[in-house]
Every structure is written in C-alpha cells, then in structure tokens.
Specification:
Order of helices and strands of chain B: HHH
Number of helices of chain A: 9
Shape of chain A: globular
Helix content of chain B: over 70%
Oligomer: heterodimer
Structural class of chain A: mainly alpha
Distance between the termini of chain A: 6 Å
InterPro entries (chain A): CbtA_put (IPR012666)
Strand content of chain B: under 5%
Strand content of chain A: under 5%
Organism (chain A): Ancylobacter dichloromethanicus
Distance between the termini of chain B: 52 Å
Protein name (chain A): Cobalt transporter subunit CbtA
Pfam families (chain B): CbtB
Radius of gyration of chain B: 19 Å
Order of helices and strands of chain A: HHHHHHHHH
Number of strands of chain A: 0
Keywords (chain A): Membrane, Transmembrane, Transmembrane helix
Shape of chain B: elongated
Largest sheet of chain B: none
Number of helices of chain B: 3
Number of strands of chain B: 0
Number of domains of chain A: 1
Largest interface: A-B, 66 and 47 residues
Helix content of chain A: over 70%
C-alpha cells in the first residue's frame, strides 16, 4: 500500500473513532452550553455591538438571529447531526496532520507512541491557542475574526514546531529555540476585543471552557492512540 | 506474531520508497488535512459557517 493511502486510511479510521466519541461528549457537554448562551444573544446585542464592531459581521449575526435569508440547520436532529458529521471531519483533518507529521519521523510504532503524539496535538491545537483565545460562546465580544484566525494558525504552527524541536532536536540550543517558539505567540499576544464586557454569565463561560478543553483532551488522546494502534496494521506490504 | 512480521516487512518496504516519493505523499496528506480543517473550522462562507457553527465553538476555532 502506498504511503499516501496508508496515511489516508489510518487518519480516516482514527478520525471516525475519535470524532464519534468526541461528538457524543460535545452533544452532552458543550452543545447545551452553546444553546444556553444563544438565549443571551438578543439581550446582549446592544452592549456587544457597542463594545466591538467586529462582532456584528454578517455570518455570525445571521447564524444566531436565524435570519430568513441565511441558511442554517434546524435545531435538533439536523443541527446535531451536522455536529457529528463535522466533528468526524475535524478528526479526519487533525489525524491527517498528526499521521503525516509522524511519518516524517518514520511512522507510529504503536498505540503508546500515538498517544504521545496525541498529547502533543492537544498541546498545539487546544492548549496553546486556548491561552490567548479561550473557547468562546456565542454573544461574547471578540476581536476581528481574520486577525484571530491568523493568530490561531500562527500559534498552532509555532507550538508544533517548538515541540518538534524539543522532542527531536539533538542539541540544547535547538531545545531552547523550541521553547522560544512556543512562548513567542503569547509574548506577541492574541487579538483581544476592545472590551470584555459580555452578556454571558461568567459561570456559564467557565463551564464551557472546562467542557471544551476536557472534550478536546479525550478527543486527542483517542485520536493519537487509535492512529498509533492502526498504523502498523496498515503498513503491511501489499504492493 | 504475524503482525510483527508484517511490521518489519512493512518497514523494509517503506524504506525502499524513495525519499522524494515519501516527501510528496506526506505533503499531499498534510495538505488534504489543512484543506479539510480549513473547510470545517475557518470558512467564511455563511452556509458552511452555520452548518459547522457548534463544532467551531465547541472546538474553540475562532468562530465569529
């Protein structure tokens, strides 16, 4: 089997496994909190708009006010079904990156090694960007979307690169460079809204951050462990 | 252990792949990953955003 197909199959199966478990956790933990937050959206519209112009961009507003012109899934089965589908797709995407990166280092040898890669993925894709841009609920004030996306991507790349230098670099200098790379995005700082004043109760947001980070931890451990367990089984020669 | 033997054989087969071929295949797989995540987590298209809304919030992708 070609290397590309090996990566594809391992990532697809790991993504389906971690995505199904992850979406089940989300549907019982984070999603009810998102729905609860949306009830504050109407009430919070005035202060939110007053504090930041960025929040009123069209897609977001449409998603929550359920504008007739914009398509959105119906609440319930359709909306939750899409959450399951897209969590699985997210798992596939993350697994492709994880497995591809691990192939550079010779490929995952088993579940234990995969689990360590999963922890690195959790650090790079959840912990690091989450320090500057914590998981946020609808109706919360936020800085410009494009700026936050750029900071998120740069932070993930710097953290992943830094972790790789620490794990695989063979000199203290490279490790120090890795540490600097990991710290740099937080020294620069994430784009913040002009005001953090929010209609969302702090307790609700706190519960959401805990649920989101916790679900992500389980998701990444499972994704890495599954990928590591599957990889040797797919790398068997056939061509 | 059959799988262990397959592992070794697989590792040997993999090492016969040229470095260039491995690089291309790994890069393609990673690009596919970036494409999938870009679609789910970063799309500015309104309908896509609405469909992936809860996933984006739940996974702390910058949403809106």
């Amino acid at each position: 089997m070609s290397l590309f197909r090996t990566i594809l199959f391992v990532a697809a199966l790991a993504g389906i496994g971690a995505g199904l478990v992850g979406s089940a956790i989300h549907l019982f933990t984070t999603v009810p909190l998102i729905l609860a937050a949306e009830t504050f959206e109407g009430a919070g519209e005035a202060p939110a708009l007053a504090t930041t112009d960025a929040h009123e961009h069209a897609p977001g507003t449409a998603a929550h006010s359920h504008d007739e012109e914009e398509w959105g899934p119906a609440d319930g089965l359709e909306r939750n079904g899409l959450t399951i589908v897209f969590t699985v797709l997210t798992g596939f995407g993350f697994a492709l990156l994880l497995v591809a990166a691990s192939e550079v280092m010779g490929g995952l040898k088993g579940w234990h090694q995969g689990l360590l890669w999963g922890l690195a993925g959790f650090a790079a894709f959840t912990l690091a960007p989450g320090l500057g841009l914590p998981p946020e609920l609808p109706a919360m004030p936020a800085a410009d979307l494009a700026a936050r996306q750029a900071w998120w991507i740069a932070t993930v790349a710097a953290t992943a690169g830094g972790l790789a230098l620490i794990a695989f670099g063979r000199s203290p200098l490279l490790a120090a460079l890795g540490v600097a790379l990991i710290v740099a995005p937080h020294v620069i700082g994430a784009p913040q809204p002009e005001s953090h004043e929010s209609p969302i109760p702090e307790a609700l947001h706190h519960s959401f951050v805990v649920a989101s980070v916790g679900a992500s931890f389980v998701f990444w451990v499972l994704l890495g462990g599954l990928a590591g367990w599957l990889r040797p089984r797919f790398a068997a020669p056939s061509a | 252990m059959e799988t262990a033997m397959q592992n070794r054989a697989g590792a040997t087969a993999a090492s016969h792949d040229s470095l260039a071929s491995r690089t291309v295949q790994i890069t393609l797989a990673a690009l596919l990953g970036v494409f999938v995540l870009g679609g789910v987590g970063f799309s500015h298209i309104s309908a896509v955003h609405n469909a992936t809304h809860d996933v984006r919030h739940a996974n702390a992708f910058p949403c809106h």
